[in-house]
Design brief:
mainly beta, three-stranded antiparallel sheet, DUF5999
Length: 93
């Protein structure tokens, strides 16, 4: 199997082979067995990381979702999920 990298074509995250051919897009990107959750699944963040840029604060998952250190997300279709930090518990009086 040829080495694959990721790219963005027409605003959609795709897998690209070394010769530039598109090998998969969106939910077709995952080649793991068993397959990772799709981008619209409830457990979509359980997909494997295919590109890691911790110095910039983001990670690309094999289902095309980009997750950010602040817990925000960007789906392959462009849908943005705002950061969802836990609220501190209030102290009972």
């Amino acid at each position: 199997m040829a080495a694959l990298t990721w790219g963005i074509r027409r605003g959609i995250v795709v897998l690209v082979s070394q010769d530039g051919n598109e090998e998969g897009r969106g939910r077709d990107m995952c080649r793991h067995r068993p397959p990772c959750p799709t981008a619209n699944a409830a457990d979509h963040t359980a997909a494997r990381v295919v590109a890691s840029h911790p110095e910039q604060g983001w990670y690309l998952l094999c289902n095309g979702v980009v997750i950010f250190d602040d817990t925000g997300e960007l789906a392959p279709d462009g849908l943005v999920t705002e950061p969802h930090r836990a609220r501190p518990l209030s102290l009972a009086a």
